[in-house]
């Protein structure tokens, strides 16, 4: 079991025992992964936020059924998968799409989803500082200068660090390490 999975298990155990303050940490730690799972199983990818939201609702509704001796990360992924399947059924009924059409659409999106999951796995290999640096730079649009000031280093040091992190992610994905 990886350190990440152990951390998820600790958070789930704490929540199961009544420590609801750990909910935010669990969300921060797992949200991107569950989005990847949702996108992988969904036919209409636009529902991924709804699926993840409902998955978290189910996770906390059924937290008492979580077996602390089992892998909590996989338990959460399975719940997300089940919610995605529920959405697919609802989507198919609403649009009266046949089962063959569903499989064809899912197959057409599988290459993108595989790449997304590969990136998610690669991202998991990064240390927390590297993940935070990428989040701030790409998602929160911090500049090299802002990151440098925050970390008491030069802009060039931040740029080199981000370049090394991206190289590491690219290498991980190209080698297909799982």
Topology diagram in text:
Layout: H1 3-16, H2 23-41, H3 48-61, H4 72-95, H5 99-124, H6 128-139, H7 144-151, H8 155-175
Helix pairs in contact: 1-2, 2-3, 2-4, 2-5, 3-4, 5-8, 7-8
**Rg result:** 19 Å
Cα separation of the termini: 14 Å
How many extended strands? 0
Helix amount: over 70%
Poorly predicted runs are none
Instruction: Compute the number of helices.
Output: 8
Order of helical and strand elements? HHHHHHHH
Largest sheet: none
> Which structural class fits the helix and strand makeup?
mainly alpha
Mean pLDDT: 82
Described by the principal axes of the CA atoms, the overall outline is globular
Structural features, described:
The chain has 178 residues and is mainly alpha-helical. It is built from eight helices and no strands. The longest helix has 26 residues, at 99-124. The relative contact order is 0.09.
């Amino acid at each position: 079991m990886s350190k990440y999975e152990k951390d998820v298990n600790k958070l789930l155990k704490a929540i199961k025992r009544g420590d609801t303050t750990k909910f935010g940490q669990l969300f921060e730690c797992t949200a991107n992964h569950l989005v990847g799972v949702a996108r992988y199983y969904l036919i209409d990818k636009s529902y991924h936020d709804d699926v993840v939201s409902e998955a978290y609702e189910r996770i906390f509704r059924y937290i008492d059924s979580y077996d602390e001796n089992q892998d909590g990360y996989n338990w959460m992924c399975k719940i997300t998968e089940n919610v995605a399947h529920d959405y697919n059924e609802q989507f198919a009924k609403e649009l009266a799409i046949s089962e063959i059409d569903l499989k064809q659409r899912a197959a057409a999106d599988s290459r993108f989803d595989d790449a997304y999951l590969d990136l998610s796995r690669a991202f998991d290999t990064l240390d927390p500082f590297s993940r935070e640096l990428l989040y701030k730079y790409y998602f929160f649009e911090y500049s090299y200068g802002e990151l440098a000031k925050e970390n008491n280093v030069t802009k060039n040091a931040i740029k080199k660090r981000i370049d090394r992190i991206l190289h590491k992610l690219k290498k991980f994905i190209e080698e297909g390490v799982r």
